[in-house]
Specification:
Elements lengths: L5 H12 L3 H10 L5 H4 L48 E2 L6 E2 L30 H9 L8 H12 L13 H12 L3 H8 L9 H14 L2 H11 L6 H13 L3 H13 L5 H12 L15 H10 L13 H8 L7 H13 L5 H8 L9 H10 L3 H13 L3 H13 L4 H17 L10 H10 L3 H16 L3 H18 L8 H14 L1 H17 L26 H12 L3 H12 L9 H13 L3 H15 L2
Antiparallel strand pairs: 1-2
Helix pairs in contact: 1-10, 2-9, 4-6, 5-27, 5-29, 6-8, 8-9, 8-13, 9-10, 10-11, 10-13, 11-12, 12-13, 14-15, 15-16, 17-18, 17-19, 18-19, 18-20, 19-20, 20-21, 20-29, 21-22, 21-23, 21-29, 22-23, 23-24, 23-29, 24-25, 25-28, 26-27, 26-28, 28-29
């Protein structure tokens, strides 16, 4: 084949794939867009010039824009069409008439303040270019569940967009792209239904098309392709066109498409292998296919080629792909579904209940405890953790159930795994009958429920320990002393009142039990307590000093730490939230500098997100091992 300029090739292939206008009209109506008559009144969508793109790795996410807005530049004038008409007054000046602003695409969302969203003026005070850059920096796999939930609500909240956006819909497209990166496929689908007829905007159509490909909705994905590809110079649309050829049964055209990709320097080995498997026919592609680095289009191609999917999903980083595999898209084996579900739940892309539902397919031998404990000890896999959950669920004896839960927590390999185990076993902890048979479980039960964001459920355990301590139990008194900090941080007055003597007793035990880590852990505790408004005296800190003077933690840069504080002080809600979420990235919570977490907690409280601040602080307290 003769090589040709990439832009010309892309346009030629895209034009060759263009479908009838009626297909797009049906797609637009299915998304809740305007009727055909109303659509005729909407102005043309402004498109930028073609962009030359470097070859992208298979399954990779688009990189955030590298254009850094200038410092100290005043907010640019609002160039959108949302400005209200000029105010008018009656002839006698007695009545002032003000027009209503038009609701733009950037204002749409599925959440309102009444349904869990942020307040509607969330973007007030943040210039459009800053907003776009900050949204692009949001992580796809935040480690803290409190941060992920806050980020999700930010991206789904309705309210006027920021001023100074160069083109209407750019913030909406950025929000959709981040929701896809987070694996929030259900939420993105709900958002798509609220979009006022923008299915032909390439920037927005891409994440919606990827979502459709991931969940197996080929008709919708290819509808976006047919509506957009002929006008877009993004090679993504060529790859989607290849998938659409497979969907339509035109394997020869799909094969030609992957050869063209190679000609223009965009070789995608995995996609090429999947197309070849489709050409060869079902069952003739050899053994199971490992979806290394797979994105939504690769999963769609694997499904259409009817290849067997390898159970090993460790090299898949795409959250929408992991969610789709967990739900059985592409007919993966059970081991792959379970492993994908565990990885997706770890970062919140899949709900905890979704992983627990898969456990129903794990057989247990009458709830035998000893066998399950031995199996989990020998093979600490997703299947073993599921076996422990099923065993604990099936065993009605409180003591035996507690024994299994403690084993599951014990084999968790790190702080992130411990918190995931806590979320999974929290429903079983709530079902335990509190009494002497589960006394050894009490400290873990409180930490499990705080980590799961359920401090109210931990209160009966605290009260039972207090009753036992009052009756003279030394073990209960010791447990209360050691639990005081995590209980206070995670539950506030709901669990324990603030008492300086209780904090001093906790510190004394910590210093005696773990002198090497006492300074760091004490600093973490005081930082979080102070951020939550506890009256930590100025003299408390000097008793913590120890060598080495540096910390083992990772810290966000000054731009994030100072930025979130400044945004919160100015009341710029969305700016504060995006800086808070982006500053942590996907770093494990237990590895982040506690003073940085405390700064975010303080900032969230300053913008009225008290519950989110408390939940983050409690999750961090458990992560640090307080």
């Amino acid at each position: 084949m003769t090589a040709c300029p990439s832009s010309g090739c892309l346009r030629a292939v895209a034009l060759g794939r263009q479908a009838a206008v009626a297909a797009f009209a049906a797609l637009t109506l299915s998304l809740g867009g305007p009727d055909p008559v109303a659509a005729q009144t909407r102005g043309p969508i402004l498109l930028g010039p073609p962009t030359t793109l470097a070859p992208a790795a298979p399954g990779s996410e688009p990189a955030p824009s590298s254009a850094v807005p200038p410092l100290f530049a005043p907010p640019s004038a609002d160039t959108g069409a949302s400005a209200a008409p000029a105010a008018r007054t009656t002839a006698d000046g007695a009545i002032r008439i003000e027009g209503l602003s038009r609701i733009t695409a950037d204002a749409v969302g599925t959440l309102t303040p009444e349904s869990g969203g942020l307040r509607t003026d969330l973007w007030q005070g943040t210039p459009g270019p800053i907003a776009l850059r900050l949204v692009a920096l949001l992580p796809g796999a935040p480690n803290a569940q409190a941060i992920r939930d806050l980020q999700r609500r930010l991206l789904l909240s309705s309210g006027p967009g920021p001023s100074g956006l160069a083109r209407e819909g750019t913030l909406l497209a950025a929000r959709a792209e981040r929701l896809l990166a987070m694996g929030a496929v259900d939420e993105l689908g709900a958002l798509a239904k609220t979009i006022p007829g923008r299915a032909d905007d390439p920037a927005l159509a891409r994440p919606l098309a990827e979502r459709a490909a991931a969940i197996g909705d080929d008709a919708t994905a290819c509808g976006y392709h047919d509506a957009v590809a002929a006008r877009a110079d993004d090679r993504f649309w060529v790859k989607l066109g290849i998938v659409c050829d497979l969907w339509r049964g035109d394997n020869a055209k799909a094969e030609l498409g992957v050869r063209l990709l190679g000609e223009i320097g965009e070789t995608d080995g995995l996609l090429q292998d999947l197309v070849q498997a489709a050409v060869a026919g079902a069952g003739k592609a050899g053994g199971p296919t490992r979806l290394v680095g797979a994105g939504p289009l690769h999963l769609a191609a694997a499904r259409l080629a009817k290849v067997a999917i390898d159970p090993d999903v460790t090299l898949i980083d795409s959250q929408p792909v992991l969610v789709a595999l967990a739900r059985g898209i592409g007919a993966p084996p059970f081991a792959a579904r379970l492993a994908a579900a565990e990885r997706a739940e770890e970062v919140g892309a899949l709900g905890t209940a979704g992983l627990i539902d898969l456990y129903a397919d794990i057989a247990v031998d009458g709830g035998t405890v000893d066998g399950a404990l031995l199996a989990a000890e020998a093979d600490q896999s997703a299947y073993a953790r599921g076996l422990l959950w099923r065993t604990a669920d099936a065993n009605g004896d409180p003591g035996q159930r507690a024994r299994v839960i403690r084993k599951a927590l014990e084999i968790a390999e790190d702080g992130t795994a411990w918190r995931q185990t806590a979320r999974l076993f929290a429903p079983l902890v709530r079902r335990l009958t509190i009494g002497p048979a589960v006394e050894a479980m009490a400290p873990d039960a409180v930490r499990v429920l705080v980590a799961a964001g359920e401090p109210a459920a931990a209160r009966p355990w605290i009260e039972w320990l207090r009753t036992r301590a009052d009756a003279g139990s030394p073990d209960a008194r010791l447990a209360l002393r050691r639990l005081w900090t995590v209980a206070r941080i995670g539950g506030g007055d709901l669990l324990v009142p603030y008492r300086e003597a209780a904090l001093a007793a906790w510190w004394s035990d910590l210093r005696d039990d773990n002198p090497d880590a006492a300074s760091n852990l004490g600093g973490a505790a005081l930082s979080l307590l102070d951020a939550l408004g506890a009256p930590i005296g100025v003299d408390a800190w000097r008793g913590l000093a120890a060598l080495p003077p540096t910390t083992p933690y990772e810290a966000p840069t000054a731009a994030f730490r100072n930025g979130v504080t400044a945004a919160a002080a100015a009341g710029r809600l969305a700016e504060a939230v995006t800086l808070a979420c982006a500053g942590f990235g996907d770093v494990p919570l237990e590895e982040i500098d506690p003073t940085a977490v405390a700064g975010v907690v303080r900032a969230l409280r300053a913008v009225g997100l008290e519950d989110d601040a408390r939940r983050l602080a409690g999750e961090a307290a458990v992560a640090y091992g307080l």
